Amino acid sequence: MNLWNNLLSVMADKLDSNKLHLLSGVKKAEFKDGKLYISTPDPLYRDWLKTNFEDDIRKSANLLLGEKTDILFIVSKEEKKEEKEANEDIEKKPYVLTNINPKFRFSNFIVGSCNKVAYASCMSVAENLGKIYNPLFIYGGIGLGKTHLLHATANYVLSKNPNANIIYTTADTFMSELIYFMQKGNILEFRKRYKNVDLLLIDDVQFLEGKERTQIELYHIFNALYLIGKQVILSSDSPPKSLKGIQERLRSRFSSGLVVEVQAPDLTTKLNIISKKAKEKGLNIPYDVKLLIAKTINTNVRELESSLFRLKAYSEILGKPITLELAREVLKDILELKNVEELSIEKIQKEVASYFSVNLNEMLGKSRKKQVRMARQIAMYLSRYLTDKSLTDISKAFKRKHHTTVLNAIEKIEKTMEKDRKFKLTVEFLKEKIMSL
């Protein structure tokens, strides 16, 4: 039995089996000239061992050797040689993890007020790896687009530099791989995978809670990459300060860059997502159905997409077009139904008239008063874009003989919105208000 195994036997009375297992990276210990030399596989493990176990090793060595012992932690020459050869291989063959989803790109990410800061941050990071917002920490509920943004960043970087060394992983996968290499007694190989990475993306870091050994390894990998200016992006369901069971020093690293939140999509963003997904699936969905889904699914984007899959399947199986009635029946178990009514032209007319404090009958009449005329034109514009009614239907609802009156009103509103920001904000406010009814 060598000296290191003897030391482990002494420490076995004081340390639990998990901590003893963490010491398996030490290959040998040698006592020369009153000094105890501990050979470690690499500088990362040496520093970690010195920080966490120097006192335990010293006490055990004093008991075993019967004298006060100076301890020196060194990197063995054999390991240095292997590391150099491995690094040369890495330089020749950049390590790029292939599980980056090519479908997730910035171009197909729907941006809204709920996620525009996270989107802009990822875009900036992709353009300036390691120079700003490092690390970038994105948090928010499930199904809100965090993973999409991580993959989109990776795809953008690869589009600019196909040889970029990128690793995308989840906290669970990171931990599983670490355990695998530890069991093989080859922790050095695990670390080498991350040594020359340009961009490290780790999803769902909340799953590191309570995983002490994994946190230790991530801490040292993070530090090594950060010190040489490499980019790290992390995602979680909670901000760093709310992560329990995570070492304070690791939480501090997570918070040292930029922390941004992805929130649940607002109504407008949900409508945009539904429209885009429906188009991708070749679905013709009436506006009232889109509005029903957007107003009653308040969980996440995945639920929105799931509802479209179901509608498509039922429509094809039953041979029926997608209508409001069909949607209510097919989606009744996932919709948070609130007796959502179809958005009618009459409702739009009443809301616009009320907002501008004009008489509804006067707005539907022939009054040329400036305030009444503006309210009428805005109501026509919103009726066109918030319902599926034709120009002819809208003209009849406003008691006009020709649909060209509605068309002219729409064009006038659009031109005024382009020139007058305050006017545009008023129209957008009314649009949001009416959609949320």
CATH class group of the largest domain: Alpha Beta
Counted up, domains total 4
Order of the strands making up the biggest sheet: 5-6-7-4-8
Terminal CA distance: 78 Å
Mean pLDDT equals 83
Ranges with pLDDT <50 over ≥5 residues? 79-98
Q: Structural class, from helix and strand content?
A: alpha/beta
Taken as a percent bin, the fraction of beta residues is 5-15%
Order of helices and strands: HHEEHEHHEHEHHEHEHEHHHHHHHHHH
CATH architecture of the largest domain: 3-Layer(aba) Sandwich
User: Roughly what percent helix?
Assistant: 55-70%
Q: Count of DSSP E strands?
A: 8
Please identify which CATH superfamily of the largest domain we are dealing with. Answer: P-loop containing nucleotide triphosphate hydrolases
In CATH, the topology of the largest domain is named Rossmann fold
Major sheet attributes: 5 strands, parallel
Cα-atom radius of gyration:
31 Å
Figure out the total of helices: 20
Tell me, what's the shape?
A: elongated
Summarize the structure.
With 437 residues, this protein is an alpha/beta fold. The protein has helices spanning 3-11, 17-22, 43-65, 77-92, 116-127, 146-160, 171-183, 187-195, 212-227, 248-255, 267-280, 287-296, 301-318, 324-330, 345-355, 360-364, 370-386, 391-397, 404-419, 421-435; strands at residues 28-32, 35-40, 70-75, 136-139, 166-170, 199-203, 231-236, 258-261. The longest helix is centred in the N-terminal third of the chain and has 23 residues, at 43-65.
